[in-house]
Amino acid sequence: MEKLAALWKRPLFRIGLGLFLFLVLAGAVGGIYLTQIPPEQPIQFPHAFHVGVGAQCLYCHPGADSGPVAGLPSSGKCWGCHQQIAKKSPELVKLAGFIERNEPIPWVPVAIQPDFVHFNHQPHVAAGVDCATCHGDVAKMKTAEPQRGQNMGWCLDCHQKMRPQEFLRLGDCATCHY
Amino acid sequence: MTKKLSRRDFLKLTGVSAAAAAVLTGCGPASRYVTRRPYQDMPEYNQTGASTYFATTCMECPAGCGLILRTQEGRAIKAEGNPNHPLNRGKICPRGLTAVQGLYNPDRVQFPTRQGRGENSPQKLDWDTATALVAQSLKEAPTQAAFLLGAAPHHLADLADEMAAALGAPAPVVYSAYGWLNGMATLREATSQAFDTTRMPYFDLSAADVVVSFGSDFLEGGLSPLAYSRMFGEMRRNTRVRRAKLVVIEPRMSVTGGAADLWLPAAPGSEWLVALALGGRVAELHGKAAPGPFNTVSIGQASAASGLAEEKLEELAVLLAQAQTPVVIPGGSVLAGASGVASAQAALLLNDLLGAAGSQFWLSPVEQPAYSMKAVQELIARMNAGQVQTLFIHGVNPLFDLPAAFGFAEALQKVGTVISFASFPDETALASDLILPDHTPLESFGYQRVLAGSAGEVLSGAQPVVVPLHDTRASLDVLLAAARLFGGSVAAALPYTDEFDFIQQKLLPYQDARQGSITAPEILTFQSIFQQKGGWWNVAAPEIPEARISANLAGAVERAAAPEGKFYLHLIQTQMGDGRGANRPWLQETPDPMTTVMWNSWVEIHPETAHDLGIKDDDVVLIQSETGQVEASVYLYPAIRKDTVAIPFGQGHTALGRYAQGRGCNPAELLSAGLNPAGDLAYADTLVTIRPTGKTRQLARLESRVGVYGGGH
Amino acid sequence: MAEEYPQKWGMVIDLDVCTGCNACVTACSMENNVSFIGEDENAYGRGMQWMRVQRYWEGEYPDVAPTRQPMLCQQCGHAPCEPVCPVFASLHSEEEHINVQVYNRCIGTRYCANNCPYIARVFNWFDYDLPSPLNFYLNPDVTVRRRSVMEKCTFCVQRIKHGEAAARAEGREVADGEIVPACAQACPTEAIIFGDLTDPESRVSKLTRSQRGFYQYEELGTAPAVVYLKGGGEYGG
User: Fold this and answer.
1) DSSP helix/strand/coil, B447
2) Contact (CB<8Å) A173/C91
3) Do B101 and C137 touch (CB under 8 A)?
4) DSSP letter (8 states) at residue B56
5) Are residue A19 and residue A93 in the same domain, yes or no?
6) pLDDT-derived band of residue B547, with 50, 70 and 90 as boundaries?
7) Nearest residue on chain B to A111, alpha-carbon basis
8) Of A37, C126, C202, C145, whose CA–CA distance to B31 is shortest?
């Protein structure tokens, strides 16, 4: 105890400790901030434009109403339309580059769940949950943006509100965690 | 002491803050380092996040069971049984389950290599160069080419047959440790003696009420463990009749013996006497005259020779006499001795005497292949005489699974070019000139004719479930390419464009037959259904020919008791199969069913014998035979004859990757080159001595584990 | 509706048919991403198998015979592991009537393993990483556990969930035998039968009424969901 008190009297120790706490806090704030902004994507894909010209969500994410994973479109699917469209923007040149090199596009997932959460799109779509409920209004987004506060409380809250009579099932740990 | 913030401290602090961020945000930032790479062109059958299932054939052992592989995003996730396949009907064994650990094994041979017989550092080749080297070696002496093949896959063996004939070379030599461990050549000889045919015997347990096994460990070893396990389950659940009884006669309790109602450790070599005495007594109880050899041996004589109590044999005879649907199965080590043919013949004839022929006992339409260790010895003699210029090795690992006494290693030195098609760096591959890695079975097309396990005819089909992982090539394609480079009559005799085309040509007769599980108007439809369903089958069993009851049994000799201080060696068939399972970590970690030992070899000794020798559990002993010696830890096994010791087969690799290498001992070192009259390895006649080494090495056993903290029992 | 009467999953293990071949053990391990840990760790008794086949010798040579008991989490109705967990990582699923282990809650106190009479729980003493490309076969439906997490048999809850979701998507009830855990699916002799105990006509319900049936450590009052059928003897006819 005395040793600690002696340490506390040294100004350098106080400064060091302060610096340490500041760094921890800064790291945490930075980390939280990182999860709230859209990540850097290989191509600045404009969702707003595609939704605007009438593309349905299910056209590019066909698994959403039939399986656990919505899925990303194959680059072949992008190219199906875009090889007939003039590559005016630099983003489309990038797409052409991926196609030419026969490389998959390394998308960074935005709506991501940890390994221990098993989310299944199909029952949610079947229950009439709109895509925008969880993914935000992508018609107003350029690249996909992460949505705030998507934690377990948020899941359970919705489960309870939408289906109180089925909450035994929908509030069960094993519904998502296995 | 002044506090100075060094660079190192600063880095530590940033690390802490990153960790804090990770904790506070539930690892959020980690997702920024994850990328998803979608398909360039998604196959139409595929959906992200949903599984796709493919039917194929298991090649982990030669039985030919049907598999369904669950794949997702182009990866093979899990092997499951094919519910429609007539052999296993959706069931699967540990070997099949771990097939994906072979496919994704980190120690695979990833590209063609000039191995230089393990002396030089391996050199990477491209496939064109490799194929040219094969053709060049063939051109040097086409008639001196030799093929040494395993019992699977059969489509490659068929091509090798045609290629050897085209080259004017001797016919391919086929063997497998499954074959010699189960005495396949002996069974063939016995069938031919007893029924004048070489069709494959099939024993239908599903409706049997008494089953007597003479040495056959049909549930774990045997020639078709899954088919027989499935039928065993059906037999025990069959409540229309009295609960079925299983009687097993063998020197060391196998998994089958463990499931038996009556286990009889007869002296090895005396089984034919027991079978004859039982037949005679059953006929007597039925009030009939015992035919042929069955009246030559009394229960008393059999008891004296086998060391089994007379009451036990009488009990068994009464059980058999009262049985409605009995069946007798010969197999395993009982066939692998000097009197093996006699024992198998006596057991087959006993089926006929008990009226099992045509109800529980069948002869399938499939001919038993003439696998014989004699042919292997002849090949080794040719190699020693310098008459082999090019040796192709596929599906076997002779430096591991042949007795060292065969001298294969020395003979290999006299071969011009040794070409191994191994997918894994096994002992033989490392001693080859070239390793031209084949795809693993889950990446390959192929077919396998089912020998045991079905009364009818089954051609099990294999297809790739994932794209090849490495720069490997189908061995059949390599041989075809080499034949094309060779040119002339050889190229003309093999007019197939590739492996797929070859298989299509071989399916033509099945399509023409218009019988069996697939009818299709033309071959492409036939082949696609063949792949989709996992094979073609016609399970109708043909008639059984009349039994030939001769007065004498071939090769009926009584074995002498083990001399003082010596023990008979028994080989245990384990989930490692012929040794290829040793590089599958989950086969290593799955406890042995009888001893619960994992990841190692052991030697089983009867507790009283061990006590007499002053040996305790886990003591390391030296096991010596006339031809070699190995060391292993002792497992005190209460269900083994006192004059016998047993060692599992399949461990003791000096190669084959990180999971197999340097683990346990290889009992093939102990075996002599002696053959029985049918040309099978007489391994059951091997005598060994046991000497303590003073060392102790604990075996990893499940049975000592109680709770996560160890200790206990 | 299934919502009003939640199903109770149960298992029957017929010891008369079990040959002790261990196919269930391998199948479970391959399905559930169970780590293999090597010889030395196994010798310490840290094996990760979620199920094991216990082999006991009975009798003296030559009348010696093994008895086998496949042992796995009994999915107790009154589970001793549940009340001792300080963080509610081991708790009861009211929906499926199984005991679930929530890996992300588990802090590794190992109280649950200490309290389990069946020794059905295993602990990740270390991180057991798979060398590439062995990790390619990992089942994406099952969480890969890290160090310091307790784990155990889940009755292949991922298969139950998938089966239920598939049935619900098609607007029907789950058929008997549609959902099978990996062990029951593999079992070469069909010694392991799985199904819904609330359906009196299911195959598993019929078998639980067998005269040969017994529970492991019934006297402890744990109300297991696994019924064993005694082997040997005479029956039928």
Assistant:
1) strand
2) yes
3) yes
4) E
5) no
6) confident
7) B31
8) A37
The vertex-C189 CA angle with B362 and C160, nearest 5°, equals: 140
For residue B586, the chain C residues in CB contact (below 8 A) are 26, 29-30, 36
Dihedral, CA atoms, B407, B413, B417, B418, nearest 10 degrees?
40
Range of the domain at A137: 47-144
Question: C206 CB contacts (<8 Å, ≥6 apart)?
Answer: none
Alpha-carbon distance of B639 to B621, in angstroms, equals 20
Work out the pLDDT band at C138, boundaries 50, 70, 90.
Answer: very high
Question: CB-CB: which of A32, A63, A102 is closest to B48?
Answer: A63
Distance of CA B122 to the CA centre of its chain: 30
In 3-state terms chain B splits into helix, strand, coil percentages (rounded to 5) of 35, 20, 45
Q: E strands of B376-522, at which residues? A: 390-394, 417-420, 434-435, 446-449, 457-462
Between B230, B258, B709, which is nearest C66 by CB? Answer: B258
Task: Please tell me whether residues A81 and A168 are part of one structural domain.
Answer: no
Q: How far is A152 from chain B (nearest CA, A)?
A: 11
Out of C93, C143, C144, closest to residue A173 by CB:
C93
Q: For B550-600, write each residue's pLDDT tens digit.
A: 767 777 777 778 888 999 999 999 999 999 999 999 999 999 999 999 999
In DSSP notation, B130-150 reads HHHHHHHHHHH-GGGEEEEE-
Within 61-120 of A, beta carbons closer than 8 Å to C belong to 66, 114-116, 118, 120
Residue in B256, B258, B708 nearest the CB of C45: B708
Same structural domain for residues A32 and A117? Answer: no
Whether C46 sits inside 8 A of B708 (CB atoms) is yes
Nearest CA in chain C to A169: C95
- More reliable by pLDDT, B632 or B27: B632
Task: Measure A166 CA to nearest chain B CA, in Å.
Answer: 26
Give how many domains chain A has, as a whole number.
3
Of B72, B585, B709, the CB nearest to C140: B72
Query: Can you list the domains of chain C with their CATH numbers?
Result: 9-229 (3.30.70.20)
Helix (H, G, I), strand (E, B) or coil at B230: helix
A70 and A135, same domain (yes or no): yes
Q: Do C3 and A168 touch (CB under 8 A)?
A: yes
Same domain (yes/no): A51, A66: yes
* A18 shares its domain with A56: no
If DSSP codes are grouped into helix, strand and coil, which group holds residue C11? Answer: strand
* CA distances for C29 relative to B75, B702, C82, C144, angstroms: 18, 15, 24, 12
A70 occurs within a structural domain: yes
CB within 8 Å: B93 and C21: yes
The string of pLDDT tens digits covering residues B199-235 is 999 999 998 999 999 999 999 988 899 999 999 999 9
C-contacting residues in B 368-407 (Cβ below 8 Å): none
Do A61 and A136 lie in a common domain? yes
Interface check for A97 against chain B (CB to CB < 8 A): the answer is no
Is position A41 within any domain? no
Among left, alpha and beta (phi > 0; psi -120 to 50; other), residue B27 is: left
Note whether A83 and A23 are same-domain residues. no
Tell me the C-alpha distance between B193 and B352, whole Å.
Answer: 13
Cβ proximity of B417 and B434 under 8 Å:
yes
